[in-house]
């Protein structure tokens, strides 16, 4: 018995040593790879100074109305991710994609990732660009940030358009995340292994090979950074704070929602309740996944054009 125990302990010690060596090697490889990959990331958009740091934005088109696009949580490159939607919007609108701090090519920040701070930073970028009238279109978590925008800056907003956007009372947002473990996984290079071993999440979608390569590079750069970890830490608080907010009744609200979301209970009814709370609201269910703008950009823009054409003039941009 004692001999078996000694053998088991020896085996466990050997396994621990091997694992430690593998983690040391992956940490070193991760650090080296980050340096080499930084040179492969291509610049796009333009940088504006916000709170002493650089925020990346993309401005395209020359339409009379401006659409400001805000990404879902953790989107590695909002500008590249929104490309199919931007392509459909450009014939009709001036299109602005803002990359929050920690996203895309924007700097990281140590400022707490509360909704208030994030929205103030995004709004400051718009002010610097001279954008004072816009239709705010946001994916996922941008539904929460959109409520803050509408509360503070209603006079600037033409409308809010949600792309499977978050709502304050959706279940599951009190989940606790192992933040220290996630941060360690990033530093040890474990996240790199996961990203590099995953398949092509953009297969069959309207992205070229260069776009896909750049998005993978930016995934490796931006996934689970200190800035994003802080946003995750504030997630529950941001949802709770949003429960005291609602879209102003005179703000047109158009929401595109997954027709069959099996992950979040009551997804459609929650959005039906939100659009019913405004004078001019519309819900459009679409078959597809969470990233509806990857697969339904044409339908989204067609519905948007129709919705705005029917909106009472008196409700737009008050």
Give your account of this protein's structure.
- By secondary structure, the chain is of the alpha/beta class.
- The protein has a single domain, classed as 3-Layer(aba) Sandwich (Rossmann fold).
- 47% of the residues lie in helices and 15% in strands.
- Helix 3 (83-89) crosses helix 13 and helix 4 crosses helix 5 (142-153).
- It is globular.
- The termini are far apart.
Give the class-level CATH name: Alpha Beta
Tell me about the largest β-sheet.
8 strands, mixed
Order of helices and strands: HEEEHHEHEHEHHHHHEHEHH
As a percent range, the share of strand residues is 15-25%
Fraction of residues in H or I helices: 40-55%
Distance between the termini: 82 Å
Q: Report low-confidence residues grouped into runs of 5 or more.
A: 1-12
Tell me the radius of gyration: 22 Å
Named CATH topology: Rossmann fold
Give the helix/strand layout.
Elements: H1 2-38, E1 46-50, E2 53-60, E3 66-70, H2 78-81, H3 83-89, E4 94-99, H4 115-128, E5 134-139, H5 142-153, E6 157-163, H6 179-187, H7 190-197, H8 209-222, H9 226-233, H10 235-242, E7 253-258, H11 267-276, E8 281-286, H12 292-295, H13 297-310
Parallel strand pairs: 3-4, 3-5, 5-6, 6-7, 7-8
Antiparallel strand pairs: 1-2, 2-4
Write a short abstract of this structure.
By secondary structure, the protein is α/β, with parallel strands linked by helices. It has 13 helices and 8 strands. Strands 1-2-4-3-5-6-7-8 form an 8-stranded mixed β-sheet, with helices on both faces.
Task: Give keywords.
disordered N terminus; alpha/beta; 318 residues; 13 helices
């Amino acid at each position: 018995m004692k001999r078996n125990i000694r053998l088991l302990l020896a085996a466990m010690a050997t396994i621990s040593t091997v694992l430690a060596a593998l983690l040391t090697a992956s940490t070193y490889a991760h650090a080296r790879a980050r340096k080499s990959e930084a040179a492969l990331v291509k610049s796009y958009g333009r940088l504006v100074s916000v709170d002493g740091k650089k925020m990346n934005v993309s401005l395209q088109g020359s339409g009379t109305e401006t659409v400001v696009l805000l990404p879902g949580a953790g989107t590695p490159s909002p500008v590249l991710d929104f490309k199919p939607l931007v392509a459909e919007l450009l014939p009709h609108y001036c299109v602005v994609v803002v990359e929050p701090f920690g996203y895309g090519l924007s700097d990281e920040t140590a400022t707490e990732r509360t909704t208030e701070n994030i929205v103030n930073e995004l709004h400051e970028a718009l002010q610097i660009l001279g954008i004072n009238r816009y239709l705010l279109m946001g994916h996922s978590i941008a539904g929460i940030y959109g409520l803050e925008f509408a509360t503070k800056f209603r006079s600037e907003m033409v409308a809010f358009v949600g792309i499977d956007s978050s709502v304050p009372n959706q279940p599951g947002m009190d989940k606790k995340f192992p933040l220290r473990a996630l941060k360690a996984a990033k530093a040890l290079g474990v996240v790199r292994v996961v990203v590099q071993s995953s398949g092509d999440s953009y297969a069959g979608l309207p992205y070229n090979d260069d776009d896909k390569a750049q998005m993978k590079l930016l995934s490796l750069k931006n996934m689970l950074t200190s800035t994003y970890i802080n946003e995750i830490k504030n997630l529950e608080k941001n949802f709770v704070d949003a429960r005291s907010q609602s879209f102003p009744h005179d703000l047109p609200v158009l929401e595109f929602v997954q027709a069959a979301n099996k992950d979040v209970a009551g997804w459609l009814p929650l959005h039906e309740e939100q659009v019913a709370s405004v004078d001019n609201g519309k819900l459009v269910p679409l078959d597809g996944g969470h990233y509806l703008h990857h697969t339904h950009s044409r339908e989204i823009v067609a519905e948007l054009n129709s919705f705005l054409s029917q909106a009472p003039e008196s409700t737009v941009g008050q």
